[in-house]
Each structure stands twice: as C-alpha cells, then as structure tokens.
C-alpha cells in the first residue's frame, strides 16, 4: 500500500517494463528467502511477508497503464478483463500449488518455493518480450509528448477529476466489503452451523477449515465470472449510452448489496441458501474490477495514469480492507459484551457487525452514480488535455473551442477528424 505511490511516480516517468520486472524479481527473491527463515527469527519472516507487497505494488500500479497504451475502447476493456481475471485465477492456483507442494515435500516451506520460480519466469518474459509502448500510443499521441508535469501538479489534477475521485471511493467500498468477508464470513457460517446443531462448537486451537475452503473456491469462481460478465455487459450497454461503464458498476453494486443482506437473513436456517447468496452477491460485486480501471483510462491522461492507478489502489486499501476486518471484529466484540455470552449471540453479534458491509456497498453504488454524472465531462476534458499534450493546440483553448470538441465527441467524430478541424482553427487564429 505504501509503495504504490512510489511506483506510480516512477511508472509515469521511466521505463515501465524494467520497473515492473524489477518489482517482480524483488517479490520472488523475498518470497524464496523467507522459506529459509527459522522459527527463531519469526519477526524476520513477518517482515519478509510485508516486503512482498512491494512487488505486488509494482505490477498492480504499472500493468494497467501498459495495457491502456496498447489497446483502446472495447479492445482495452477486453484486455483489462483478461488481466483482472488473473487475480482470482492466481489465488485459486496459489491454494492448489501451495498445498500440493506442502503435501509432496512434507514441509510447508516448499509452498513458498514454487511461486518464486513462476515469478522469475514472468519477470524475464516481461523484460525481454513485452513491448514498452509510448505513453498515449493508443490515444494516438504517437509518443509526441513534449513535457511532463510535476508530481504535485499531477496530484492537483487528479483531485479535481470528479470521475476519478468518485470511482476511487467506490473502489474503496468494494475493498472494504471483500476484506471483511474474507476474514469473517467463514467464521460466521461456521457459527451458523453450530446454531443449527450440524457442527460442534470449536474448542481447539485449530478448527475445521471446510468453510474457509468453500468460501475461497466461491470467491475464485465469482471473481472469474464477475470480470467476464462485467466486460460483456459493458460492451453491450455502450451501444445504448455513453455512460455505460459507471452505470453498470452502480447497478451491480446496488444489486450485490441486496444479496449480501440476504446472507444474514437465510444463514440461520440454510447454509446452502447462504452460499447461494454469497455466490450471487460476490459475482455482482466483482463485476466492476476491470470496468473501474477502464473508467480511469478514459478520464486520466496517459502521463498521469500510473500515479492515478497507484493512488486508487492506495485509497482502496487505506479506506477498505486495511481496516474493515478490524472494525467488524471490534463491533462484534462490543455487541457480545452487551448480553450474556451464548452460541446464538456469538452468531448474531457477528452477523449484526457484518451488516455494515451492505450499507458500505450501497454507498459505493452511490459513488458510481456520481461518477456517471461527471463521466462525459471528464472524458471530454481528458481528450482536450490529450490534444494539448501532443502540442496540436498552439493556443490555450477558449470556451468555444471546448464546446466544439465536446459536441464533436458526442457526434462520434474520431480524434483525427477533430484534430484536423482544430488545425484549421489554428490557421484562422494565427
């Protein structure tokens, strides 16, 4: 989380694939090294796991910007979807490969020695085979960016970009819910089974992990489905409205909140019903992963995208999954102390605490609706800024020029057509 802004700054100014490869190599080396740390140096092991986040920050901040410079429009949506499909797919494979390595070697340390090999391979392939596109290549800048603004100027511009700010807050709402679910939903479902008398109360240090495995499998599958359905739905809706991206995200968030609420209604009576609600709720929640990244590409100029992606991730973690598990646990503990301790009240108090999540999800849906209000204006401003970056405007655009550009965009004219018209305006002016 802390390293993301640093990689965002570097990614907007230096060779991105070298930075990306170095981050992956660092992550792989730290992971491999941590597998040899003995129990006497447990603190060092914990530190090494934290350092893994540096490598994760590199590719989460920079990879989307490379994709954004290679593809545009529906092609970019599809490629971003493929990229974000790797998150749930990789999570699932991590569980499978890690547990398989542990079983085969009879030592859990080997689970940390498999992924570094894959990481080193990926880093090498990126370094030697992935092209480094010019910033703005897909936006037809053609690499003709003459200058870059300062980091402070970039941050001021992003803070004034309403679509970016609201979509980042919505992303934080998604992160808040997923972080809380990952920590507490398996325990909540286990307590539900104890209340139903289909499971024994846990009195050991290590309890059954069945619910965690089932929930993890559901999360992997719903992540895959959500990204695919989200990309396909957005492509269809773009034929009806130019605000399709934020509207699809808003509707999916509001729909997700309904099914998340139903989890706490049906869990006491039916575990299967609760899993069905989790499946639908998470699928709708994950619909916006790739779309949110695509919104950012539409409203942020190429030379600020790495910084924008990095700070969006930073905000999502800071306001989302960095604190939501602790907050839910805090509320649950406070509720448990209010009444006599019992199995039923342990179950209910955790459920009441988790009810905060659907309200946060609804808030995220509201943020996406706010994004939809400003999306076209911010997209048009992004286009104007893009033209300025490529030095096609030798004069500061006045209000009439901005109106002309915006109306031309709405009528479906291409960037090159509008650029030619602006060149004519330059001749008239000078």
UniProtKB/TrEMBL annotation:
Keyword set, alphabetical order: Membrane, Transmembrane, Transmembrane helix, Transport
InterPro entries the record matches: MFS, MFS_dom, MFS_spinster-like, MFS_trans_sf
Transmembrane segments: 18-37, 79-98, 110-130, 164-185, 213-234, 246-266, 272-301, 352-376
CDD domains (alphabetical): MFS_spinster_like
Biological process per Gene Ontology, one example term: sphingosine-1-phosphate receptor signaling pathway
Xref: Pfam families: MFS_1
Main location: membrane
Location of the Major facilitator superfamily (MFS) profile domain: 1-382
GO CC annotation: membrane
Recorded topology in the membrane: Multi-pass membrane protein
Cellular localisation: Membrane
GO molecular function, one term: sphingolipid transporter activity
Taxonomic superkingdom: Eukaryota
Similarity remark: Belongs to the major facilitator superfamily. Spinster (TC 2.A.1.49) family.
Identification of the protein by name: Major facilitator superfamily (MFS) profile domain-containing protein
Species, as recorded: Oncorhynchus mykiss
């Amino acid at each position: 989380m802390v390293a993301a802004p640093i990689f965002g700054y570097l990614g907007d100014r230096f060779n991105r694939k070298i930075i990306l490869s170095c981050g992956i190599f660092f992550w792989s080396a730290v992971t491999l090294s941590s597998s040899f740390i003995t129990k006497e140096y447990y603190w060092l092991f914990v530190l090494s796991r934290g350092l893994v986040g540096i490598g994760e920050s590199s590719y989460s901040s920079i990879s989307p910007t490379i994709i954004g410079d290679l593809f545009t429009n529906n092609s970019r949506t599809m490629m971003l979807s493929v990229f974000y499909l790797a998150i749930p797919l990789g999570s699932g494979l991590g569980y499978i490969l890690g547990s398989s390595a542990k079983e085969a070697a009879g030592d859990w340390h080997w689970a940390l020695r498999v992924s570094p090999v894959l990481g080193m391979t990926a880093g090498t392939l990126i370094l030697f085979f992935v092209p480094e596109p010019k910033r703005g290549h897909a936006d037809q800048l053609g690499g003709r960016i003459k200058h870059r603004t300062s980091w402070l100027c970039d941050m001021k511009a992003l803070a004034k970009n309403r679509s970016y700010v609201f979509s980042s807050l919505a992303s934080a709402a998604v992160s808040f819910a997923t972080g809380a679910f990952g920590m507490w939903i398996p325990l909540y479902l286990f307590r539900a089974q104890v209340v139903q008398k289909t499971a024994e109360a846990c009195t050991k240090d290590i309890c059954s992990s069945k619910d965690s495995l089932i929930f993890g499998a559901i999360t992997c599958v719903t992540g895959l489905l959500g990204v695919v359905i989200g990309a396909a739905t957005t492509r269809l809706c773009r034929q009806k409205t130019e605000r399709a991206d934020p509207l699809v995200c808003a509707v999916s968030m509001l729909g997700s909140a309904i099914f998340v609420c139903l989890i706490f209604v049906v869990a006491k009576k039916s575990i299967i019903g609760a899993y069905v609600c989790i499946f639908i709720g998470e699928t709708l929640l994950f619909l916006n992963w790739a779309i949110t990244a695509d919104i950012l590409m539409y409203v942020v100029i190429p030379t600020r995208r790495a910084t924008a992606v990095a700070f969006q991730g930073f905000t999502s973690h800071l306001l989302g999954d960095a604190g939501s598990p602790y907050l839910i646990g805090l509320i649950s503990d406070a509720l448990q102390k209010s009444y006599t301790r019992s199995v039923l009240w342990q179950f209910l108090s955790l459920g009441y605490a988790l009810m905060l999540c659907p309200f946060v999800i609804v808030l995220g849906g509201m943020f996406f609706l706010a994004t939809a209000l400003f999306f076209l204006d911010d997209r048009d401003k992004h286009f104007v800024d893009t033209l300025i970056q490529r030095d096609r405007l030798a004069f500061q655009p006045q209000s009439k020029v901005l109106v002309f550009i915006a109306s031309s965009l709405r009528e479906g004219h291409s960037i090159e057509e509008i650029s030619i018209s602006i060149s004519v305006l330059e001749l008239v002016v000078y």
